[in-house]
Structure formats: structure tokens, C-alpha cells
Amino acid sequence: MGLDEDALEYHRTDPPGKIEISTTKPTNTQRDLSLAYSPGVAAPCLEIDENETEAYSYTAKGNLVGVVSNGSAVLGLGDIGAQASKPVMEGKGVLFKRFADIDVFDIELDEEDPDKLVEAVKMMEPTFGGVNLEDIKAPECFTVEERLREEIDIPVFHDDQHGTAIISGAALINAADVAGKSLDELEIAFSGAGASAIATARFYVSLGCKKENITMCDSSGIITEERAAAEDVNEYKQQFARDVPEGGLADAMEGADVFVGLSIGGIVSQEMVQSMNDNPIVFAMANPDPEIGYEEAKDARDDDVIMATGRSDYPNQVNNVLGFPFIFRGALDVRATEINEEMKVACAEALAELARQDVPDAVVKAYGDEPIQYGPDYIIPKPVDPRVLFRVAPAIAEAAMESGAARTEIDLEAYEEELEARLGKSREMMRVVLNKAKSDPKTVALAEGENEKMIRAAYQIQEQGIALPILIGDEDEIRGTAANLGLDFDPTVADPSVGDYEEYAERLHELRARKGITRSEAGELVEGDSNYFGSVMVEQGDADALLTGLSHHYPSALRPPLQVIGTDDDVDYAAGVYMLTFKNRVIFVADATVNQAPDEEVLAEVTRQTGKLARRFNIEPRAALLSYSNFGSVDNEGTRKPRKAASMLQDDPEVDFPVDGEMQADTAVVEDILQGTYGFSDLEEPANVLVFPNLESGNIGYKLLQRLGGADAIGPMLVGMDEPVHVLQRGDEVKDIVNLAGVAVVDAQQE
User: Fold this and answer.
1) How far is CA 61 from CA 125, 226, 300, 397, 405, in A?
2) Angle, alpha carbons 667-669-673 (nearest 5°)
3) 343-381, pLDDT tens digit by residue?
4) To 5 degrees, how large is the angle CA 204–CA 206–CA 212?
5) Is 37 a catalytic residue?
6) Which of 10, 18, 25, 37 is catalytic?
7) 515 annotated active-site
């Protein structure tokens, strides 16, 4: 099927459309329903009646945006009316929820009169925390937005005007930087003089461009003072009339530094691009066909054409989704009365700054694994970059507070953590550990230091103050890769081939001489295998922790640390633990990587160590030893092992958290089963530490929970070692390395 057929099938599949309403509180019992509605609902009603701002405390108002349209100017479709515009408005709601966790009611109004549109939205003000105007034709859209901003006390934002202005403004900041030009010196030619073009020109002035340097063209040519005097253009266009001779778009582009296209496709030729100033900036944003094609513009000149379009299949897509969800997120969270110019500028500047930073692996993968680095082909962040939420929303909130638009003051540092939690429980949990790590950073050795991911991780670890990273590998290669990646940091490198590490070889020989390693072999291992080098470095106290395994199979990466560092003095067995995070639950799964067929002694030790790990994440452990049996319902050698392990732990006075077993997995995690059928259990609440009876079941279990249960997995985290060591999975992303570095630092702090 083609795109149209696929889209129709996508929308009509049951249930039709793209959105639904779901409840956020329990509705399972009669009491739940009496709290949700009558008679309990009277209490919050009376509180709000006494103080209207309590609506933000007792209702969804503070996280609810109305997407309002009359369908008179739907992108690419024109005036199709209110009813036909509904799929677009539902789609806008999807984007709000997906990118910023904001709920939306889409409101399609069958009304052309701007005065009546204003009155309709005003009457809905008590419902919403903000209003996003969408697809209302010009010039009526100016009137509607201006009046609503004056007459209601919640943020109003016309995305068609300001969204493109803000996102292209961020691109302009960086394009000018890449081209080596100053904003206040740019000569800018506009093709198009509708709502979006006028708002964009206004916004560029807010960023520092000069109004007298902007030449705007509509379908009749350059907007001149002569045309304005003859009232040939409306009042909104008149503000950009210039005292220049009449002419067309080609005249406006000649000698210009910037072309901004918000008109129709195919109206710009290569000759027109050739007539522009050196290193021109071309923003051809007509959709679906830009004013000039990407390849055409690039091929028009020998110097560097910095090109942006509205399309996702070319670099530098100007996509409004980079703006409106995060603008409203920040505005809602400080209960702003408006979205003012200071907030819009803050958004553009935050986006521009983010584009200059290292790009997460997940974003690179989403765009075909091609390198993404600040420069002519990357001047604005990608829409799927999760960092946009916790960079832009705080910038909006801060600007609202500083400009007086905020009703509520918030702690920006704590706010960033709250925003990260909106992206998933795993981010919330990792923030706990990373904050602990930052409070007392330790030295972390990174084996396989020549690997690009390790280098990027080292940069982020150092930049964020999580640890003091040491990259193990060829120093010239490491520094060359860092420079090629555009990373602005001076890495600490331990190069086994050039440094004086004889003592490391001596120590390795001392430890392994009776295991068959000669002195010369020890020297070769130290110089040629970063896992052995890093293990000895940590064992000797020259680093506090070790990360390895990025390009090795787990067993081969684990072997050197086990041989050199070994397990803790009172521990005989190491284990691999995954933390699985769900929307409202965190579970630690062990052992998933190390012990193939553990006996009761190993199971007990794994449980102890996993309980300690849970506490590093501020989680009080409740451990269940799993089986296919419930408390003796099946009695054989396999079920006795977890049963005996549970008994050993219950008798151990040093184990200060609840443990029980053997039990089935659903008994461990479902409260009704645990407390109903097995009320005698030592677990008063569902378990959050699940100890599997063997490696096979543990590995299968965590992967099923991750893939089918929708859990985010952090790990594997190695517990039980004498010094902090964590073995990565092959192919882990940079964020996984950074996270495990944080865990390693907290481990070292405990040491």
C-alpha cells in the first residue's frame, strides 16, 4: 500500500482515531467510585469554589492544553473546515503527549468569525491550563491570538506563527555561527508574507537581526513603502515595508546572506542562490516541496550553502515539534499567564545550544547510524532527541519566572529531575545514583578506550562531573578520535604501550603465577589487553573502578577482573543484576549473567548482594526467591534450593530486609495473591528483588519483561566484587556506559 492507504488504515483501525481518555486513579471498588464522583467529589469542588487556583491541585487543568482550530488554513490542504481538520488536531495531541507528557482536548470550531472564535475560547478558559491555536488563516489568526492574550489568563500560542519562527530562529543562530556571520549584519530575504513569515521576521528581530535588513516578498513582489502607502498590503505586512525599488524575489535575494522560504515549492532557482552572499543560509521551508530542492541548492555553489527545509529526509529539518510541546511544558509547570517573547527567545537559544553538544546513540540510530555532528548539516536538534524536554522546558520556566509571567516559582535543578522522570522511571532511578556520584566523584578506568563510544562516554562523564575517567588505549588514536568527534575535552589516557607499567606486569604475574601465567605472558597481557591492564590498575589502587566489555563477549570480559580483583572478602560469588523499571514499579533481577546453576549458598549470596544494590538506588529491598513451586507445593531438588536459601537468609541476623521463597513469579509480584492466598508470607508487599533459580531462567525472565512487559533495563550491574567492576553488554550505548559509571562511583563511595 502507498502512504495514503497506510494512513487511512492507521486511523480507522479500532478504536478509530489516535487518542483516548484514560483514568489516572483507581476505579476498582465502590469506595474508589465514591471518591471519583458522588459524594466524594464535592470536597474538591468546594475547595476550588473557595480558591480558584486550587483547580491546579485537584483537577487535570494544570496539564491540559486545548488545541483549537476552525480548519481554515490546514497545512498543505487549505480551508477544509472544522470537521475535516480533526485528524490533524488529534495528531497534535499525540505529539504533545509523546514528547512532553501533556494531555490534550482537541476542539474543532465551525466558525469563521474571529470575534466568535475569541468568545468561544474565552468560555473554555476554566477547562485548560493553556491554548494552542492551530490552522487558522491569516490575517484572522493575528486578531484571535492578540485578543486572547489580552483577555484570558492562561498561555495562548499560535503554533503556525511562532513555532516555525522559534525553530528556524534556533537554526539561524547556529547557521550564522557556522558561517562566521553576526546576526545584526545579516541581510535576509523572505519569500512569503503570511502569518508564519511575519511572525518569523518579528522573531528574528528579537534574536538580534535588524528590521531594516529584512526584505519581504509576497506574491506581488517586494513589500515596499510605496506599496504600503498605497494600501496594497495589510497592516501586518506594512511593518516590513522597505524604502527600496519595486522588484521580485530574485531582486530581494541578490546579495542576501539568508533566504527564508515560507511560500510555495519550486520558485527559487540555482541562479538566485548563486546571486547570494558568500556561504549563504537557505531555509526553504515550504512543505511538502521546498522553494528549492536540497541537492539543487547545495550544487548551486562551490562554497558552503547551509540548507534547512521542512522535510525529514534531509539534514536540518525545521520541525515545530521541537518547540510547542516543551514550550507548553515549561509554561504549565510554572502556571504561566502567557507565552511571551522572552520565553520564545529562551527556547530558540536552548535548542541552538543543544545542537552543539554530543548526540545520543539512540538519536544517531534513529537516523540511519550516520554520524551527527555540529556543523552545516546539523544546526538544530533532531525531533526524537529526548534531551530537548529537559533543556527547553527549564529554559521556558526560567524565562517565565524572570519576566514575571509565572504564577509559581520552582527549583530549576529539581525541575530538571522531574522532567527526566517523565521520560521514564529508569531516568528517575538513575538520577538518584548520578547525584550521589557527583557528590564525591571517583576515578573510573575505561577499558577499550579507543572505542568511539567509550571516548564519547568519557567526555560526558567528565562534563557532568560524575567521575574522573581514564581511557585505556593508544593515546594518539584516542586524542585523534576525540578531536574528530568535536569533543571539547582533554582526556586522561593510560597508554600501556608507552607508559612505565612494569609494576602492573609484576603484580599480574604474582597473582597468576600458580595459574600458569609466566612473567613474559603477564607483560604481554598488561600491554595488549586493556581488561587485564584496567583490572590491575584498580587492584593496585590507581583507579577506583573499572568498566569493560563493550566489544567482548561477557564471559571473556569478566574473566580478567575475576582473576585479578576477585570477589569481596566475605563474598564467594559475583552476580549480574538488571534493574527493570516500569511506569510505577522498579524490580531488580538476579542472577542474569554469571552463575549458571547456583546452589542454595550462591542463591543466598546473590540475594544479599542484590539487596545492597537496591539500597544504592534508595529502594528498600523485598526479596523473593523464585521457582515454579509455592512454599513447598512441589518438593524436589530444584525447589529445595531456593527454599533453603530463603531459610538461610531469614536466619541470618545481618539480613535486615524481608525475604521469602520459594514462590512463583506471580505470587511474588501480585499483591492480591501474596496477601490473599499466602498471607503467612514474610513479604507484606510485592517483591522488588527477584532471584531466579538459575542463569537460564534469569536471562529469559529479564528479557521477556523488557521486550513484552515494556520495562527499561539498566545493567547488568556486577555485585560481589572486591572492587567496583561493571561489565557492559556488547553494543551498549553511550548512555549505558555513563549510567554504569555512575553506579561504579557509588560502589566506590561505599568502599
Assistant:
1) 10, 49, 52, 18, 18
2) 40
3) 999 999 999 999 999 888 888 877 776 778 899 999 999
4) 65
5) yes
6) 37
7) no
